[in-house]
Amino acid sequence: MRKQQTNKGDFILIFVELCKHTTYPMITWGRGFTSKVERSCRTDEVITKMAALGTARCLLRSCSGVKNVQRSKQILMRSGARTFCSETQDKAATDHAKPQFTDSAVQDILTRITSLDLQKVYRPIKQELKPPTYKLMTDEQLEQAVELAKEQAKKLLQMPPVLPERKPISDVLCEDKILDGMDTAKYAFTDITYNIPHRERFIVVREPNGTLRKATWEERDRLIQVYFPKEGRKLTAPLLFKEENLKLVFSQDRHEDVLDLCLVQFEPDSSEYIKIHTATYEDLDKHGKYDLLRSTRHFGGMAWYLVNTRRVDGLIVDMLKRELLHDAVSLVSLFHMVHPHSESAREAASQQATGTDLLKIYAQRDSQRSGYIELALQAYEQTAVEGSAS
Amino acid sequence: MATSMKYIATFICRVSPSISHSVRQYQSRLQRLPARTCLSLSPFIHPRHSYCKAASLQDEAVAQATEALARYKDRPWDYLESEEYIERYGSSPVWADYRRNHKGGIPPQKTRKTCIRGDKICGNPCPICRDPNIIIHHQNVKLLQQFISPHTGMVLDSTRTGVCMKQQKQLNEAINTAQDHGLLSFQIPYVEFSGEDYSNSHDAVGSTPPPPSLTLGDNWYKWYGEILPDENEVAKVKKKYKAYLK
């Protein structure tokens, strides 16, 4: 990044050429659009024309929230800025911008696949009962109420974050050997200021041998739960998460409960969270019980996991059984987005296939259960033909 | 005496049908006993004779009752499938036909502390204490389910079910452990995930590099290592306190 100072005194960061290294967008989960622009790019060229500068600045500001670097590059190219291009420009983005879970395109596809079944989202839950309220509404008011309910349901179906596992904390702040053997117990000092986020809270531990170190993640979670208890979270993890109990719960088809409890109990980047989610998704995949999670907030996470581990067949078969062809097509397109070097992805890109052709290509190339997918596609085409004929 | 014998005998009949035949024999002998004693000439012998027999019968009954208890001790959930349970309760919950005895229309807000103190059992014991085969255990899900409201999912109060406070406490603990183990389902609160920063870039959770002096292999504090005193300073101090030095 090179900062260009204009005569107005502003600092503008301009990107013309993308570097060969991957760009990791800042994960500002839910913080909304800030003025943060992506870092870690190296630019070599600078636009010297002031008009081009102005347009580039406007365009960049407008797409500052977008994590996909490709688009900003294309916009700049289109704005007619004079660039000193090098050969590596074209390959850079497509090779190295691996789609993340937080990308808007990925999120779009996942929300579409999750669908919205109002009956399932608003099914009656066991809670404190109040006497019912009755409202007299016109048709318009009823429609408005239904729209409001749909908006609220979309908020309820917001997907929990999928993060890599957190690195363990093992920093020693001080080694006071003079305190060695003074006490037999560890002392944990927690900063209980109310207004700071838990991830910025300092928690340190003084060992009996005198070292002052930062608390480990488990200690942090436990102590924060002691001083700032969260609803539903326990100090020791529920025994439901042990192997035998998990098996029992899975046999009762209560995967959604397990995942909800996991969300309540563990942090999204902790190892237990990832382990339990993996175990649940594996079990779902083994038994083909994908419909349990459909129209819940966990479906997106499950689809993302299956796409990353290249085991989408079961889910596609399930979708075709329930005649959700558009969902199957979007899933295959997501698969191509995440694995652009697979055979089916390359062939689809070369043929510019859409719709059922995508499915056919996927079934021929990468699928293990190609027979079923092709049969289902044929059946769908037959019904489509009959429908158009009649 | 005869009536209590009869009660115990019927109880034994219900509990173990296999020995009911022999019990019936005993019963018939019991019924014949008073008639025989009336006819006999020595009145002071026959009471002892009948009491002996009655005492042995009572011991046997107690032994058989404890055996029944022990039978369900390891697998308390078997009792809820058994015939005697179905015959006694049917499909309604265990507390359905229980009625507390209290003065006035409004019952006291707390049920009694406990029904069984030592060996003595009170009159009108609560639904759990009156049936020794009902054992509160966290794996006995069917029984625990009877004490949870099907509409709200909350544990029913003891004023509603009539159980004594001790059993209510045990019930609460058992229901909590069952939910913990995943045997009972419950409503899980919804967690919001917006507005949280998971980048772990703050110093509190990120990695702080150690100070450069430490990486060289030095001690943390300078004075942890060898400190050699300054000769001049030592000489000055010695001179000052010369009078006190040996």
TrEMBL record, chain A:
Recorded superkingdom: Eukaryota
Pfam families: MRP-S22
GO cellular component terms given for this protein: mitochondrial small ribosomal subunit
Any one GO MF annotation of this record: structural constituent of ribosome
InterPro entries per the UniProt record, alphabetical: Ribosomal_mS22 (IPR019374)
PANTHER family referenced in this protein's UniProt entry, alphabetically: MITOCHONDRIAL 28S RIBOSOMAL PROTEIN S22, SMALL RIBOSOMAL SUBUNIT PROTEIN MS22
Name used for this protein in its record: Mitochondrial ribosomal protein S22
Taxonomic source organism: Oreochromis niloticus (Nile tilapia)
From TrEMBL, chain B:
GO cellular component annotations of the record: mitochondrial small ribosomal subunit
Keyword Mitochondrion in annotation: yes
GO molecular function term, any single one: structural constituent of ribosome
Entry keyword annotation includes Acetylation: no
Keywords: Mitochondrion, Phosphoprotein, Ribonucleoprotein, Ribosomal protein, Transit peptide
Domain of life: Eukaryota
Localization of this protein: Mitochondrion
GO-annotated biological processes: mitochondrial translation
InterPro entries linked to this entry: MRPS18B, Ribosomal_bS18, Ribosomal_bS18_sf
Matches recorded under Pfam families: Ribosomal_S18
Family: Belongs to the bacterial ribosomal protein bS18 family. Mitochondrion-specific ribosomal protein mS40 subfamily.
Protein name as catalogued: Small ribosomal subunit protein mS40
